[in-house]
Design goal:
Strands 1-2 form a two-stranded parallel sheet. It is built from 9 helices and 2 strands. It has helices at residues 19-27, 36-49, 54-67, 73-76, 81-88, 97-117, 120-124, 148-159, 167-176, and strands spanning 133-134, 180-181. Helix content is 50%, strand content 2%. It starts with 18 loop residues before the first helix and ends in a 12-residue tail after the last strand. It is globular. α2 crosses α3 (54-67), α2 (36-49) crosses α9 (167-176) and α8 crosses α9 (167-176). The chain is mainly alpha-helical. The chain has one domain (13-181): Endonuclease III, domain 1 (Orthogonal Bundle).
């Protein structure tokens, strides 16, 4: 854990323990995503997070970027046993067989959605009526783990063949992709995103 001094700006408390967290919070978290490759990246990373801290995933992000070929769903969808075995040996990522196989299956399901809707972006934003839900939390303890929208997203993704997309993971994904603004109202990023 890195000691940090963040008195110059008011931030959400969850990001204050490490400079990687601060960087992610200040530049990415809650910024609306409309790029399919970025959507796929967050789907892989949020699924990898299941049962772990987000900081653990962020520290391995660059390794994920390399082994998942810059989060290219067309390539990941074609991974076979050789690639799976290589990934299971790679200490730079979370070496969980189910999560690795899920990423490949999710890539296939992702491509089907792109084919049906023209883009994953068009599909995924329907769960928030194509706009960011802006919450007004004063304390980190108020942030929910899920919502009606994440429940619906989870059900829909599971029906389409995705795994590791429970409502809590979907809610975290929605926060990351800017579908929900869960910055605290005291955070300098609240009005910026």
């Amino acid at each position: 854990m890195t000691e940090l001094n963040h008195t110059e700006k008011s931030r959400c408390q969850w990001c204050l323990s490490d400079s990687i967290y601060v960087e992610y919070h200040d530049k990415e978290w809650g910024v609306p995503v409309h790029d399919d490759k970025k959507h796929f990246e967050f789907l892989i990373l949020d699924a990898a997070q299941a049962g772990l801290s987000w900081l653990t995933v962020l520290k391995k992000r660059e390794n994920y970027r390399k082994v998942f070929v810059n989060f290219n769903p067309e390539i990941v969808a074609n991974f076979g046993e050789t690639e799976i075995n290589q990934l299971l040996q790679n200490s730079g990522i979370i070496r969980n067989n189910l999560k690795i196989r899920s990423a490949i299956q999710n890539a296939k399901a992702f491509l089907k959605i792109q084919e049906e809707f023209g883009s994953f972006d068009k599909f995924i934003w329907q769960f928030t009526d194509y706009k960011t839900i802006v919450n007004k939390w004063e304390d980190i303890k108020q942030l929910p783990a899920s919502s009606n929208q994440s429940d619906e997203m989870s059900k829909s993704l599971k029906k389409r063949g995705f795994s590791f997309v429970g409502s809590t993971i979907c809610y975290a994904y929605m926060q990351a992709a800017g579908m929900i603004n869960d910055h605290l109202i005291t955070c300098f990023r609240y009005n910026e995103v």
